């Protein structure tokens, strides 16, 4: 794993050098700043929208998984855009494309990623309730808290 991280870091550095040679330092820095701003904008916008899409799907009796996948891919893309580096930016831009999202979602599902099935009631129906045939019978007794002295005992009082 260490070698993979080191290889990615070296590839990102090489990407900076190559882009810097081709476009110049100022334009390279401008691209890095623009990618970071784009990542922050996606992160800010996507959080609330993903939750709203999943809630809407649950309210209407639909499947919330597509909204969950889409939100997860956009979150990953936003985080990759926030980190400086051109290779990460390329991967992030690919993750923003719906066809790439569909392919990856299918691939993750096939490889055994855990998919939670959410059961919800349709509009106008009540959600399923647990069985009511369990009876719990108990007796109770209130036990007062022990009195604790608020001061040290003296020779004049009993504790």
TrEMBL record:
Q: Does the keyword Nucleus apply?
A: no
By its UniProt entry, which InterPro entries does this protein fall under? FxsA
Q: Where are the transmembrane segments?
A: 75-97
Which residue positions does the secretion signal occupy?
Answer: none
Q: State the residue spans of region: Disordered.
A: 121-159
- UniProt keyword annotations, A-Z: Membrane, Transmembrane, Transmembrane helix
Where does the record place Basic and acidic residues bias? 122-137
The protein in question is named FxsA family protein
């Amino acid at each position: 794993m260490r070698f993979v991280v080191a290889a990615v870091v070296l590839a990102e550095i090489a990407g900076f050098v190559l882009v810097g040679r081709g476009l110049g330092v100022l334009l390279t820095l401008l691209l890095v700043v623009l990618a970071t701003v784009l990542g922050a904008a996606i992160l800010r916008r996507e959080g609330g929208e993903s939750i709203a899409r999943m809630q809407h799907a649950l309210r209407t009796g639909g499947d919330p998984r597509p909204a969950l996948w889409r939100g997860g891919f956009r979150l990953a893309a936003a985080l990759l855009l926030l980190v400086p580096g051109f290779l990460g930016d390329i991967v992030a831009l690919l993750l923003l494309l719906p066809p790439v999202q569909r392919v990856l979602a299918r691939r993750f599902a096939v490889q055994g990623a855990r998919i939670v099935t959410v059961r919800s009631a349709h509009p106008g129906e009540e959600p399923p309730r647990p069985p009511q045939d369990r009876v719990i019978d108990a007796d109770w007794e209130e036990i007062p808290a022990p009195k604790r002295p608020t001061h040290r005992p003296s020779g004049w009082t009993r504790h």
